Amino acid sequence: MRYLLTFLFLLATPLRAFECGGSDLFTTMAPQKRAAIETRAAQTRYGEGLYWQASRADGTITLFGTYHLPHAETQAHFDRLLPRAQAADIVYFEMAAPDIDRFQRAASTRPDVIFNATGPTLPEQLEEDEWQTLRTRLAERGFPGFMAAKLKPIFVSMMLGLSPCQMRRQQSGAKGIDHALAEFLHAEGRDTRSIEDYLTTLKVFDAFSREEQIDMLRLALDLPLDPDDMAATMFNAYADGKTALLWELGRSLSIEYGGPTAEADFAKFERVLLTQRNHAWHQVLRQEAPGRDVFVAVGAAHLPGPDGLLTLLEGDGYTITPLSFD
Q1: Cβ–Cβ under 8 Å, residues 94 and 82
Q2: Contact 325/50 with Cβ under 8 angstroms?
Q3: pLDDT tens digits for range 85-98
Q4: Would strands 51-56 and 192-194 be described as parallel, antiparallel, or unpaired?
Q5: Which residue from 83, 111, 141, 149 puts its CA 20 to 30 A from 77's CA?
Q6: Contact indicator for 181, 82 with CB cutoff of 8 Å
Q7: Average pLDDT over the chain, rounded to an integer
Q8: How many Cβ atoms from other residues are within 10 Å of residue 132's Cβ?
Q9: Collapsing DSSP states into helix, strand and coil, what is residue 104?
Q10: DSSP designation for 240
């Protein structure tokens, strides 16, 4: 499940865009396996494309599928998107700039958000050899073991999904397109809004019991894939606009390496992290978009599929048109 978590939250860089390296898994994947992933992706509605327009008589919604971590093309994307975002009446992000600040404060001042305030610590729930392995891997990522001991296991799994190099990149202060655009537009006094409560992405994990989270952490410790290879593969798919392919890769790897309950686990993640949030965001746009020019920048995985934002807006009578990013 660590690859699913990384993929969903960091939709995170290839040799051409990220100095950490890594090899694209599709280049060495068994042809039958690759074909199965590509077939599922090809059957996904709006499965290719990052930049879209939804239009009808009473307004226009422009949508961009983001990649939350910085990469070599972040500035180019910023320059291309900024004029369109500045022209909008409202700009929606998963978190607008003020809520990014609130999120960071909550993560540091509210122990219940990311820590288990009661109950056993990770060293008490894991075998000694598992805990020592975990401490070593977290230390490689610049995160001391004593700080991880009370973390909710699911967040530790997310950290394991990033390589040491990627963690250093994050810690350098470089910003992804969401953060960069949100801060710039807020500083200009534009009407920028969060499309959901700023703690949603933390609270959704409470849908998984402590036991389920420990199981996922154990799987993360044992997974044979290199995080840099996974990151390279995901970004290559993203850079090519193949959002459905990226999602289906996450599904395939999660089921392959996720243990006997992997398929059910993936379905649960998909429901709480993607589908339910998409439908909630759709209701926000239903209420706020009519009569306005709206710009939406959210993770790329939220756009395609039967429960993706594009299909949901199409159901409201919007005409969906891909936009060129050249």
Answers
A1: no
A2: yes
A3: 999 999 999 999 99
A4: unpaired
A5: 141
A6: yes
A7: 87
A8: 13
A9: helix
A10: T
Nearest to 231 by CA among 1, 15, 75, 44: 15
CB 303 within 8 A of CB 243: yes
Work out the burial of residue 77: count CB atoms within 10 Å of its CB; fewer than 13 is exposed, 13-18 middle, 19 or more buried. Answer: buried
Mean pLDDT is lowest, of 73-77, 90-94, 145-149, 184-188, for 145-149
| Closest CA relative to residue 93, chosen from 70, 65, 73, 74 | 65
Please report, as a single letter, which amino acid is at residue 303: L
Q: Could you identify the residue written with the tokens 């056993």?
A: 120
- Integer angstrom CA distances of residue 155 from 53, 210, 266: 35, 12, 17
The reported pTM is: 0.87
Tokens, residue 209: 């019991």
72 φ, ψ to 5°?
-65, -25
Half-sphere exposure of 184 (CA within 13 A, CB side): 15
Q: How many residues does the chain have?
A: 326
pLDDT interval class at 259 (50, 70, 90): confident
| Structure-token pair, residue 313 | 């807006």
Tokens encoding 36: 């199965």
Q: Is 66 left (phi over 0), alpha (psi -120 to 50) or beta?
A: beta
E strands along the chain, which residues?
51-56, 59-66, 90-93, 192-194, 293-299, 319-322
- Nearest partner of 72 among 129, 17, 16, 133, judged by Cα: 17
Report the distance separating Cα 317 and Cα 76, nearest Å.
Answer: 32
Q: How confident is the model at residue 168 (pLDDT cuts 50, 70, 90)?
A: low
Query: What are the structural domain ranges in the chain?
Result: 2-312
More confident residue, 192 or 20: 192
Contact 186, 97 (CB under 8 A): yes
Question: Amino acid identity of 4?
Answer: L
pLDDT tens track for 228-248: 888 889 889 999 999 999 899
Grouping H, G, I as helix, E, B as strand and the rest as coil, residue 133 is helix
